[in-house]
Design brief:
The protein is mostly helical. 46% of the residues lie in helices and 2% in strands.
Length: 167
């Protein structure tokens, strides 16, 4: 599975650049599962290069079903110059991508639709919250990713389910 390469690569990169973070690949995989079914949401698929095609775009954040977030990127990442939309397999809001975007595959471009880039960016965002082997710190970081307690519980259960078979 192409997504797994992105999660594992990001985890290894983070271990080298932020050894005190202790973010496991399984957390990134759980986020990818919950956010986009590992890049398969709404008919998308990850290509051999790790890019979601067609691109993955969340609903307009216009306050009707989710928080209202006015456009922050002039539509550059999400195609909307009125409201922001989360983008890519890890569903970054454009302003968050602007801060945390990463070039995980080394091609010189940071693209939220590319799983290596998105996984590394998500990992850096989570590691910003510190040492994540402590459950309360891990929950704080994942809650920051999406401010819903049930989301954190789902990500935790999914991450744990991935960790068990891996040993």
């Amino acid at each position: 599975m192409r997504a797994l390469l992105g999660y594992a690569g990001a985890s290894l990169a983070l271990a080298a650049e932020q050894s005190g973070c202790h973010l496991g690949w399984n957390t990134l995989a759980a986020l990818g599962s919950v956010e986009s079914g590992h890049g398969t949401h709404d008919g998308s698929a990850l290509g051999a290069d790790g890019t979601a095609l067609p691109g993955i775009f969340g609903p307009a954040l216009d306050g009707s079903a989710f928080a209202a977030i006015s456009d922050t990127d002039r539509g550059a990442w999400d195609g909307s110059s009125e409201w922001d939309r989360a983008v890519g397999p890890l569903q970054f809001i454009p302003a968050t991508w602007e801060r945390w975007g990463a070039d995980g595959n080394g091609d010189g471009v940071d693209d939220p639709q590319q799983i290596d880039d998105a996984a590394l960016a998500a990992g850096r965002y989570l590691c910003h919250y510190g040492e994540l082997s402590r459950p309360e710190r891990w929950r704080t970081a994942v809650f920051a990713f999406n401010h819903v307690d049930s989301y954190v519980d789902t990500v935790a259960a999914t991450a744990n389910s991935y960790a068990v078979p891996a040993g």
